[in-house]
Design goal:
The protein is mainly alpha-helical. The protein has one domain. Strand 1 and strand 2 form a beta hairpin. The protein starts with 17 loop residues before the first helix and ends in a 7-residue tail after the last helix.
């Protein structure tokens, strides 16, 4: 029998690697762009057009379409001279956005929708292209994501100021009908109450976030004042979505910036609830809208805004159960829901030519392209969340806020179906993702 000399080696213990434990939160980065020649003035022009598009989103769809279109043209010309600029398209959010768009286009081949509905749906979802566009343009510009956030907030400031002018009956009107203006009892301008609430709730929470990162008292006070300036139009408006955005955004801000404990989370949630109870007691608009919601849902008033939303959920769920895997095709919800609309509004309003959508992005995708579409949509949000959680700085936290407010609001609004919310989320998400995920070999 062979004898072993010396001491037998002890078994190697597996050391717990903290880096591997946290690896799930790191995005799969696209390859770094190194030694890629600059496209010069064309690249600078495309980036400036991108910022102008972000600035225009809150108050003008026409300008946003113009600047996005020009940005896309400039980017395509850049790819002709420098194909390597397309390398960031290999990052997870870009691939998932393109895959979701591809599935929606493919869904047109089995759609039961009329040709007009099908074409309309495809036009709406082509906005998914702007996420990869923003991602590629920001990849070689380290400061562009933070600038994009500031330009977006500046556009929101225009929107908030316009609401204040509407309340004061000082907002100019358009003789050509380019924008609608409400009044003091119903203050809205440029956008509807839902859109105003979503955009300004993010702007307010982003300002409060900036206050927590501010290094000076003066900067902290200015950021808090900006947050209040953005939040007040929500409190005096007639929408409910903005309240939800504020509630969720402030709570996520606590999770991001404070020491999280069960007791602390409970106290923060309770404090926020008390604030909104106070808003209910003080704001006649908020009280009326909340009372209408409770009455229409509890009494099952079908021919009402909230009654119709309930019917959207019921008909949509039945449609998904009927064809769960691939859905009924792109743009099909209006056709599926049309008999229900005729039944609800019979004798009340003529809805023969009204085309409905379910006010829920996951449900709308499930009806059109089944669980495959919902899976791609959720994977897109998760890929962005992983990037946001991989870093801890103001821009990464802003991406986390953006994702949370958008994701919650999209549960009861079809946000990718609306041009304002779609452009707002996709442009900002693409830009902020780059700050969290980009690996640069050389500074450009």
């Amino acid at each position: 029998m062979q004898q072993y000399a010396g001491v037998l080696p002890t078994p190697r213990r597996r050391r717990i690697d903290k880096e591997k434990m946290l690896a799930w939160f790191r995005p799969l980065d696209a390859p770094p762009i190194v030694d890629v020649p600059s496209s010069g003035w064309l690249e600078r022009l495309a980036r400036q057009l991108l910022l102008l598009a972000m600035f225009s989103v809150p108050f003008s769809t026409a300008l946003t379409n113009l600047f996005v279109g020009l940005t896309l043209i400039a980017f395509v010309l850049m790819l002709v001279t420098t194909p390597a600029l397309a390398r960031p398209l290999r990052s997870p959010p870009a691939l998932l956005a393109l895959a979701l768009l591809g599935l929606i286009l493919l869904g047109g081949t089995w759609s039961i929708a009329p040709q007009e509905d099908l074409q309309n749906a495809m036009r709406k979802y082509t906005k998914l292209l702007v996420l990869p566009l923003a991602l590629c343009l920001c990849w070689r510009a380290p400061t562009l994501p933070a600038r994009a956030l500031r330009w977006s907030l500046a556009g929101c400031a225009v929107l908030a100021t316009s609401v204040y002018l509407t309340v004061l009956d000082a907002m100019p009107t358009s003789s050509l009908g380019w924008w609608r203006v409400g009044d003091a009892s119903d203050p809205f301008v440029f956008r509807n109450h839902i859109t105003i609430g979503i955009l300004l709730s993010f702007a307010a929470c982003a300002s409060f976030l900036a206050a927590t990162w501010a290094r000076s008292t003066r900067a902290r006070i200015a950021a808090v004042a900006a947050g209040i300036y953005f939040a007040t139009p929500i409190l005096i408006g007639n929408g409910r979505t903005g309240y939800v955005g504020l509630f969720v955004g402030v709570f996520v801000l606590y999770l991001l910036r404070a020491r999280v404990t069960l007791l602390g989370s409970t106290l923060v949630a309770a404090a926020l609830s008390l604030v909104f109870v106070g808003a209910y007691l003080v704001s006649p608009n908020f009280e009326t809208r909340t009372n209408n919601l409770v009455t229409e849902v509890t009494q099952k008033i079908e021919a009402s805004p909230n009654g119709v939303r309930m019917s959207y959920m019921r008909v949509g769920a039945l449609a998904v159960a009927e064809r769960p895997l691939v859905g009924h095709g792109t743009g099909s919800f209006a056709t599926i829901y049309h008999p229900e609309a005729l039944r609800i509004w019979h004798g009340i309003a003529d809805v023969r030519h009204v085309r409905n959508q379910p006010h829920s992005e996951p449900l709308l995708l499930a009806v059109q392209v089944g669980v495959a579409g919902v899976a791609l949509y959720v994977a897109l949000l998760v890929s962005l969340a992983r990037a946001a959680l991989a870093r801890h700085d103001p821009v990464a936290d802003a991406l986390a806020l953006l994702l949370t407010i958008y994701s919650v609001a999209s549960l009861f609004n079809s946000l990718l179906w609306d041009p304002t919310e779609a452009y707002w989320f996709l442009l900002l998400a693409g830009a902020l993702y780059v700050h969290c995920a980009a690996r640069r070999g050389t500074a450009q």
